[in-house]
Write the structure tokens for this entry.
Amino acid sequence: MQKTMRGSLRRILAAMGLLAVALTWVPMAQAAAADRAKAVDKVHTAAAGLKEIMNTPDKGIPRDLLRQAAAVAIFPGVIKAGFVIGGKYGRGVILRHDAASNRWSAPAFYSIGAGSVGWQIGAESTDLILVIRHQRGVDSLLRHEFTLGGDASVAAGPVGRRAEASTDVALKSEVLAYSRSRGLFAGISLEGAKINVLGDYNRAYYGRSLTARQILLGHAVAPPASARGLIEELVRYSR
């Protein structure tokens, strides 16, 4: 009888252990699914933001620049707000470009953020696109943190159908910045803005831990189906 009771107790304890594991695993799985949904949505909004900027009559990013770009960063819905002391923050994706074959990598997730001090007031949501012109800029992005104006010079990019007419300091900059704004804001600059890898978003999107180098430079990471629309837009605009 004692053996029977001990056996029953062991089964009860084992069942309780399995129940505890299940109760822990379910919330974790739900959180992972929610994080992946956020990452997928960010990819889709990045594609929409790129399309809207490129479809602006005579005001889009010159395709010549996209053809020659080493990478493109797209930060949809960057929030800028302030009253004397302001700041901006947003999440987005970066894709590397092989200009010779016009192939684009899978997206790697990054954040952009900065604070600023000056006479400014208001709030604004901006779709921000950065054209990284040289491989040196891509190499800087593979570090944990990348500072615009520090690790690479940045300037407002020329707009229009072609870039040849704009031969000023902008085209000598390593990073060219473009934005599409909804709202009013004054007194903010990309100088000093920091771009950081979003490891949690990359892990949620790909289902495993990957470095930015593995995503942008590695050949083992295939673009997920949800990134197909964004890549197709980039291929179309960089022909």
About this structure: The chain has six helices and seven strands. Residues 2-54 form the longest helix (53 residues).
